[in-house]
Amino acid sequence: MNIQAALINVSLLWLLTAPHEFAHAWIATLLGDDTPRREGRVTLNPLAHVDWLGTTILPAITSLMGAGFIGWGKPVNSNPSKLRGGLKGLAAVALAGPVSNVVFAVVLAVVAMACLKFSPSAADYFAQGVRLSLYLAIFNFLPVPPLDGSKLLLAAKVPLFIYAELARFGFLLLLVALTATHLGVWMAAASDETAARIFDFLH
Description:
Blueprint: H1 3-30, H2 35-38, H3 52-65, H4 87-115, H5 120-139, H6 148-155, H7 160-168, H8 170-180, H9 183-202
């Protein structure tokens, strides 16, 4: 029961959720869909993007159990019929979230290195943010609703009945994948290695 890890992961997830969901909303708006703007999602205010189950409860539980990490923000609604490019536009909106995680990981790495001399504890916190941001980028590519990777299935014209079945059991599939397999361990190792490469590049 790692309470400290749970608190750090949940607080960082709140920090990371805002730019992730903002990226979805911003790209959808650029592509002509006014749905995110009408729903107040084109903002960096974390409260606009919090999903209490995905942003607080599940990440806290999985962190406490040491069973990988499950977390997401409140999904940004987008209407493919309003997006320029149709399904290609939908794919661009889906990819915007994970890409923002990678970009924000670099930003956090710069902040961590800037904090190193005067506040090692803050540097450690932001360094953990780098790893978690990269982890979320990988995690969100999983093709399971409500994650971003599932939108790529729609863009690839996977039959809707298959998508509907995945959506029906999405939470269960994610829980099983992270608690009964080595998927979470692999994603953590991949994010750690990528974070190390970023720090080496910036050093």
